[in-house]
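In practice, a research group might receive sequence data for several interacting partners and want a quick structural hypothesis before committing to experiments. The following worked case mirrors that situation: the sequences arrive first, and a predicted assembly follows.
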Amino acid sequence: MNTYSPEIEVAIARVRSDVAKLHGELVRYGLVIWTGGNVSGRVPGADLFVIKPSGVDYDDLAPENMILCDLDGNVIPGTPGAERSPSSDTAAHAYVYRHMPEVGGVVHTHSTYAVAWAARAEPIPCVITAMADEFGGEVPIGPFSIIGDDSIGRGIVETLTGHRSRAVLMQNHGPFTIGKDARDAVKAAVMVEDVARTVHISRQLGEPKPMPTEAIDALFDRYQNVYGQAPQGAL
Amino acid sequence: MNTYSPEIEVAIARVRSDVAKLHGELVRYGLVIWTGGNVSGRVPGADLFVIKPSGVDYDDLAPENMILCDLDGNVIPGTPGAERSPSSDTAAHAYVYRHMPEVGGVVHTHSTYAVAWAARAEPIPCVITAMADEFGGEVPIGPFSIIGDDSIGRGIVETLTGHRSRAVLMQNHGPFTIGKDARDAVKAAVMVEDVARTVHISRQLGEPKPMPTEAIDALFDRYQNVYGQAPQGAL
Amino acid sequence: MNTYSPEIEVAIARVRSDVAKLHGELVRYGLVIWTGGNVSGRVPGADLFVIKPSGVDYDDLAPENMILCDLDGNVIPGTPGAERSPSSDTAAHAYVYRHMPEVGGVVHTHSTYAVAWAARAEPIPCVITAMADEFGGEVPIGPFSIIGDDSIGRGIVETLTGHRSRAVLMQNHGPFTIGKDARDAVKAAVMVEDVARTVHISRQLGEPKPMPTEAIDALFDRYQNVYGQAPQGAL
Amino acid sequence: MNTYSPEIEVAIARVRSDVAKLHGELVRYGLVIWTGGNVSGRVPGADLFVIKPSGVDYDDLAPENMILCDLDGNVIPGTPGAERSPSSDTAAHAYVYRHMPEVGGVVHTHSTYAVAWAARAEPIPCVITAMADEFGGEVPIGPFSIIGDDSIGRGIVETLTGHRSRAVLMQNHGPFTIGKDARDAVKAAVMVEDVARTVHISRQLGEPKPMPTEAIDALFDRYQNVYGQAPQGAL
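A structural hypothesis for the assembly, expressed as tokens:
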């Protein structure tokens, strides 16, 4: 069994609590059904992250059921929840944490409109100000990959590295989002479904007006630096 | 009045409780309105199944209101709930239990998007990984049949026998799903509406990318055997 | 002030309670927003009906706030709720009760999909079995009429007289439904939105398969006479 | 610190309470997600208005968290909530209050269907009676403007001055609505999303029938002067 410093134990407890609770936001915003979807959060100051168990009811997601993993996605033995299997997407989350040190949270859902764009392998164009605020431009498509090796994680990292967007739509699969912490990644998951839906509906009856690049840049800059009660900072 | 062994009585009580409770999932996921839709579950170890009464409010579905039937769809006299009529789809459920011994649960709804495909008699193509996971390929269409003889049950059995899909869309009517137990059939009902909606929306703005057959096979195999806390086994 | 026999007073109290409570079903099924929509119920054995007040919150619809009217739509002075104005659609409800003695309940909403068909003045074709069950064929369009005289009520009565459907879509306006009592009319309002939505969605990607007239007739006949715990009888 | 007369203090307290509570209606009707959207209300008898703080959870919107501003959008120091930043749309609200003295409430959301029309810069045509009632004609488009100067407020005022509609769809951005008080502006926000959705859906399968101008005028006049429990008066 592992022993961590008291500071790390406190950090683990907080991330367990956050990750457990944030799954409720996926339900509240209708992004997941049955046992689908998963949220993870990095433990600050340690090479660890916390993730949802695989195939477990949303009504049963208490902090002590969350699973602690190292950055290779291995469950830490002897810790609460370790008797269960972690989310089947754990390898993809781990890959992101290993390769993107600035990322503190990862979310995956099969939310309807985001998957609809993903199935056509079509990026979501940036035609509404809320999307410029949040993603700073289009939401990109990641490669088609199936579970079984590092290909999903690699596709996420390659697509999002150097990109303003915190969301990627993996082809035929669905959205993965990243953030500075788990809550920020959940917000990106909520927002990507919202813009996927709104732009889809707008395009059903014609072409949305493009927005000038300078306006998109100005909106993104302001939102990342001014909006809210304290600067969020770029990811 | 029938008398069953204590083991069978325990099994009946458990299936009554499960079937009553699972109707709540149909409401939660918006698959049913008013008194529509029905869930049934086979009683393990006996030629019996439990089904919802006909035309009764979802707020009034306690275990003791569920109806116990034999595999010909006859209500077992003298048992709780037997004073009511069983679901008008009871004959179709019974036909499935008689002809598919591996089936432990059957669900029928008129969920919106699944009915929309059914009305066009168009199978749902497998273009998203969640659908490959759950159904292993397209969701097929069953024949047009109306209530009054065995034609609905026969259409379900003929369409699903030897098919990976646990869901069939009966033409102009709606989805029937099967599972190893009632919960598994309810999950299939939830998932078939979800994929019906997502693929519909994706196709509104263009053609989804096809997925390679090998990828579909690999996803189905993994999901049926690895996902979750214990193997589910193929149906 | 009017005095009624004890039997009529009991009937009035029951209809007040039913009408107040049934407005909650309009909210539950998403058929109304803000203060829109209205349910009324005829008082059996009297030339009276009970209807919702105008422009009042759904959270404030207690039985004593419902308004008692005669069949010309006049509020009965001195009865509970009489200090308020009745629904602005009261004249249309009254017209229906005067001219269709078999009708015991009337409902009006602006539910989304039903209004969408109404705005195109296009009847909903009967291409799903649930619609054959409930409406026995297409849901018809009523004439364009605006509030201010008897034209809405007359349009409802002329369209529905001799028609199987308990729902009419008034052009550019929305659905009115009738029933043997207020609950039956509310059910029709719930079902007409459901079939309006499902058939709309089906037609977005192609033409639904027509159903044979004989099948529609057989489904309607069975549902009206056999479904549920007791025969419903044709309206 | 400012001191106000007892009458103004009472008015401030009431507007704080109304504005805090009315945000719940935005959630109830699905017009906002995460921390998006904002309601403000003018304080009767003073050059002040109350608005939501920026980027704060909807679960955390108590009256004492609302922020009191002058009509230039400056936070009044020393008042409850003044330690937080007001909504990032405060300048636009302030501009409206300065230039439209008859306006007592302003609401901004990114509600899905209204934004979809805004992204195409297409006014919503008046083809349903509910829209004639509420808006007296089409819902207009305002200019493309980004946050940073007075351009959003100016666009709202220029578009709505002399217009029957209490809603404007700012291009590529979303709806702003006005009203005689905060509740009236919230009602307009709820109704504009409803008509945006219904007309969108109607047009998906063909062209809605136009309504005669005289009918639109008659409906608007009646609804503004007769509907409800007391005359509303034109804004």
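Before designing any experiment, note the following. The mean pLDDT of chain A is 94. Residues 6-225 of chain A form a domain with the L-fuculose-1-phosphate Aldolase fold (CATH 3.40.225.10).
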